Amino acid sequence: MNLKKLIPELVSRLEDTGFDKDPKKIQSASIPQIKSGADLYIIAPKASGKSTAIVMGVIQQLKAPFEEAPRAIIMVATKEKAFELEEQFEILGKHTELRTFTVFDQGVIQYQKDMIFEGLDILIGTPKRLHELVKVDGVRLANLKMFVVDDLDSFTLVQYPLIYHVADSIPKSQFIMVANSWTSLR
After folding, report:
1. Sign of the CA dihedral 106, 107, 112, 114?
2. What is the span of the domain harbouring residue 140?
3. Global pTM?
4. In Å, how far from its chain's centre is CA 25?
């Protein structure tokens, strides 16, 4: 992957934050595929740069704020992972002004709905809360371009049906699933 093929705002942040000029192998392989809009499974060992590839790919696809409805939903197994991803988006997407928001099970659902309707580009959340929000029309899915499930291996058996319910509610979108190995996918 050549940094020159990324939007200038992302390249600028990568350089400002001291990001390695030579992307990891999984990033070089997956970011062009994410940019193309293809559905994909990203399978790579733990700590190989998968989550950063997702963040970079989503920023590259969305580029700048647009309207109010989310254009990317990223589902993660835990609240902690959701906040880690949100922090990565804040760091790498600073110059793009993309708006992110994190939802999780213990939060007040009405507050979360209100924040979503105020306008955002990237919604990050846990399966149960995303499912609840979709079920009560708390998330407009009309402009959704990307649905990402990160660290699929860390989801519990109880969370898998929620992934399917949310995915089935999405009219048309790029689907990206990320895991550490094929054997961990159920």
Report:
1. positive
2. 3-184
3. 0.91
4. 20
